[in-house]
């Protein structure tokens, strides 16, 4: 993402969906979740892709789009590279401007009040969700405690507008600047305010506070505060802030099994993709079961596609005409839960694996989805209760992936099981799928 935005932003064009962390890759965002603050308009990252170039199990290179390979085109998102090797993608670009005019709005009250304030920040109550005059270009919410949150809405602005007398420009990308989520928190004392941020710096505003723990998958979390308690101090940012964040590849390479399992038990690194109208319920559930703050809110459209993919809107959603929905897409929200739970911080007992199992059960019961990069305790049966297997399994058979690529369930499994246990499970699965094949 960092390479692409560095090349495109000076030309006043951009990917429609730009994920926050510089090191996130096109392939990873397509095969995984791929959400960003403009997803309430454009959907997930894969929804902005026009075509894929894929190497199939038999060595053929095909161009999958809405053509004879349309089943493959719709099956690739969330498949984690288990249908073929994705080697290139054609992706939409959109016109942009030099700055982001960002409005910070405090919201106070109960968790249900915070949820409604978040919904109202970008979803018109009259249902006019496609009106650019009523819907901002970017949306993000931060819930700092059970009674306070900050909603941020952004609109592209020209350089001429940003530099008008009296406007505040915040170049938040400098290493010595406060971490963005803490800067946003000042809204609770200051009240609503507006500032202009250079567009590329806004895109990657969470990068410096982004420390990856547990499964070490990049999400906009605030774990850096736990690893380096002084990392957000002014003197540290000024002297050593240029070192942050560390490379994700380095963290992955140096993390052992014991450390990974420790974080599974003592930290929460989860994303809950839930229908927009259930955000209040999700916030109350997280507070009751995990007590993790801050929480990150980011909306995204889940489009009604010609075929039923692994993730899909609720049947008949359009008949309810709920706030944020349209006739062709249901609005969802990513509730990001990334930090040490309250019981752990107080020195109390907390069963991380059991908490994840409860979260997964809640998601299944509420038509929610758990991105596959997170820690998961799902068994295979419940995995396919959460996700729809029909198109994915059809594509695996049609394009010869069975016996060559492992199933997405085993590819994405990241629970308390050791790497050895997962490898053994993958071997057993391959033997079941291809009983006559030699499995090394």
Automatic annotation (TrEMBL):
Region feature (Disordered): 412-440
Extract the GO molecular function terms from the UniProt entry.
Delta24-sterol reductase activity; FAD binding
Q: What is its EC number?
A: 1.3.1.72
Q: How does it sit in the membrane?
A: Single-pass membrane protein
Where found, per UniProt?
Membrane
Would you say which domain of life the source belongs to?
Eukaryota
**Basic and acidic residues bias: where?**
418-430
Please note every region of biased composition (Acidic residues): 431-440
Task: Please tell me where this protein is predominantly located.
Answer: membrane
Q: Which stretches make up the FAD-binding PCMH-type domain?
A: 1-96
The UniProt entry's GO CC annotations, sorted and at most eight, read:
cytoplasm; membrane
This protein's UniProt keywords: Membrane, Oxidoreductase, Transmembrane, Transmembrane helix
Q: Name one GO biological process term.
A: steroid metabolic process
Name by which UniProt lists this protein: Delta(24)-sterol reductase
**Which organism does this sequence originate in?**
Chenopodium quinoa (Quinoa)
